[in-house]
Amino acid sequence: MKNPQTSVKSASLAVTNAVFISRSIRHSLRNVEALVMAVVLPIMLMLLFTYVFGGAIDPGGNYVNYVVPGIILLCAGFGSSSTAVDVAEDMTNGIIDRFRTMPIKSLGVITGHVAASLVRNLIATGVVIGVALLVGFRPTAAGLEWIAAACLIALFILAFTWLYAAIGLVAGSPAAASGYGFALLFLPYLSSAFVPTDTMPAWLQGVAENQPITPVIEAIRGLLTGAPAHDQIWKAALWCMLILLVSMLWSMWTFRRKAGRR
Amino acid sequence: MKSLAIEIQNLRKTFGDHVVLDGINLSVQPGTVFALLGPNGAGKTTLIHILSTLVAPDEGTARVAGFDVAAERNKVKRSITLTGQFAAVDDVLTGEENLRMICRLSGLSAADSRVRTAELLKHFELTEAARKRVKTYSGGMRRRLDLAISLAVSRPVMFLDEPTTGLDTRSRRALWDIILQLKEQGITIFLTTQYLEEADQLADTIAVISGGRIVATGSAGELKSRVGGEVIELRNTDDEIIRKIPTDGTILDISRTLHELASTLPGETRVSINRPNMNDVFLAMTAGGTEVAPA
User: Fold this and answer.
1) Residue B167's pLDDT band (boundaries 50, 70, 90)?
2) Would you tell me the Gene Ontology cellular component terms (chain B) (predicted)?
3) For chain B, which has fewer Cβ within 10 Å, the N-terminal or C-terminal residue?
4) What is the pTM of this model?
5) A260 touches chain B (CB under 8 A)
């Protein structure tokens, strides 16, 4: 076996990130169960709400137009949550020590998982919208509104993926990460995703109207179906950016603090 | 004169109330195999973590390949590879993908990574399993891949934390051969182990660590002679040791001892003369004080 030269240049930041992103995408593609669940579960929920509960909630049969934006976010939130497990698995495996002792920016491991989650969830969202169209979803959005909605959905996925990454970093094990992440999945139910907030008891309305998911749902609903909610877009974007910023800082801080501990 | 590969002065580390390293002083000559021998919880992994920049020391200094592990972390990282206690490989990827990933992260171009990966797979007898996911590998294969990954690019100092823990005898011997080959290439190897035989077989220098302190340093031979010389062992017909008598190993001393004993012991008693093995060394060093069998 030949011995390669000793003084190789270190990998650039771009190469490092590209390597970690392709690693995480390979991981995603090989975890078929998670991939299928991320698409099938939201579709099942959509069919459940449209055909089972829909008639009772809105006897006019127009419920599908109301519920689809909520389902899109539910799907994005659920799809992002597996990032917590992916990150926790890496952090409890010996491989993290190897990455940390190489002359590279090892936070790229986390960035890779986030990028893969973004790609995975945008595709899943596309599939969900496709099925929604088949079961009667009739959006009124034109080109610009579609683009705005797509950007907002991407920002939402990015923010929640970083939040789940932080949860994965803090959790002591993949099972714990999965548990903590699960709690967050209830947030969409306490929003205007499935029913308008004014049908809820007063105390719950306070919670539902002031949590981050509601403005995001209202904004997407406004963009896609022309509901009067355009003022919600900035509120939604600000919420997402706040969550994104806090989660990224939290992740970076935890990543550094946990060096050498598994 | 070549500078030391590793130089550790008065290193201390405490986690909470627990003193893990209590003033470690060590030096490792370049191009040698150094074994840190000690029981679980003696501080072996913490020392490796400090030397490989994962954990900062509380007090004292450590230099690896001439660079300070606290102040010059990036230069240290460019000089080392760490193979941790549990195989640091990606189970989801194939062996080939694992190697190529690390080659790329080590700064090789895509084309060079491919060439180097093929070379390493061949050298470590993993070519056949190259396209299988690591999840399906045996313990020995994982360790071989782990070592192959560590050699993606050549670094002067290599840390191996309990490289053969959990391996069967055959895989262990194969790994020993590989480690000795690496030494031939001039790489300094710092390994930890709980196996006396391993330290005995591989290391030029052995340091025994116990309770966060180095209790003895030297070559295997030096450590053995420090525990004491040869011992006359007497066994009964059930092959149980009934007496152990220290001797200086000369024919004069042995014949005199046996002459005295012959009248008091049954004629079937069996005699053997043994040198202390690493096990005796280890027990004597870590228990504090030399324990020689009752005369």
Assistant:
1) confident
2) plasma membrane
3) N
4) 0.84
5) yes
To the nearest whole Å, the CA of B246 is away from the closest chain A CA by: 46
Q: What is the pLDDT of residues B211-235, one digit of tens each?
A: 899 988 988 888 777 766 678 888 8
Q: What is the CA radius of gyration of chain A?
A: 20
> Which residues make Cβ contacts (< 8 Å) with residue B166, sequence separation at least 6?
B139
Which of A26, A94, A104 is facing B105, going by the closest CB pair?
Answer: A104
If one looks up domain B6-224 in CATH, what number appears? 3.40.50.300
ipTM entry: 0.86
Surface of A (83-102) touching B: CB under 8 A: 93-95, 97-102
Q: What is the mean pLDDT of chain A?
A: 89
3-state SS, residue B28: strand
| Any A CB within 8 A of B166 CB | no
Q: Does B114 touch chain A (CB under 8 A)?
A: no
pLDDT tens per residue across span B111-142: 999 999 999 999 889 999 999 999 999 988 99
CA distance B218 to B226: 10
Task: Classify residue B65 as left (phi > 0), alpha (psi -120 to 50) or beta.
Answer: left
Residue B202's Cα: distance from chain center in Å?
7
Rounded CA gap, A31 and A35, in Å?
6
Domain ranges of chain A: 15-257
User: Alpha-carbon Rg of chain B, whole angstroms?
Assistant: 23
